[in-house]
Structures are given as C-alpha cells and as structure tokens.
Amino acid sequence: LWVAFVANNATSDLLVSSSANGQAWSRSTPVQGQASKAAPALAVFQNKLWVAFVANNATSDLLVSSSANGQAWSRSTPVQGQASKAAPAILGRDGAL
Question: Helix (H, G, I), strand (E, B), or coil: what is residue 75?
C-alpha cells in the first residue's frame, strides 16, 4: 500500500510512504526533490508506481514521475504542457480499454 502527500511545512515537498499492512508505515521518501501545490495522485502502471502532481511554482505545470521501487524516481516530466489549479487524478491500467 502506498500513500503520496505534500509535506506539512514550508517546503511543500512531495513525499511517499509504504505499508505492508496499512498500520506500520515506512519513513517518508522525497520524490526527486519535487514540491507540489496540491495533493498528488498515485497509480500503478507497467509494474511502476506513478505520481502526478502540480508543480509548486508560478507555472503550476502538471507533472508525472515514476518509480520501480518507491525510492528512486524518474525525472519529472510535464503532461503535454498542461497546468492545473487543483489536485490531479490518475488511473493506471495495463492493457487496452
């Protein structure tokens, strides 16, 4: 089980934590030194954990990053030049619709 959230401090760091039982949680891990203006979204796709979030800067770019282990994250990339005022949603699905 994974949770992604924005740090409750002035940094607004984007963090993830995991749990095998929903009660004991791992220490939070930063996502590639990123910060978010709004709550992030998580999904599993192609055996990777994906996070979507709003850049914590004047652009408010909508960004995504992925990880195979929840520790090492890919470089965040913009979603085709999109920006957002609110938290994104993401749904991962392997296979065709």
Answer: coil
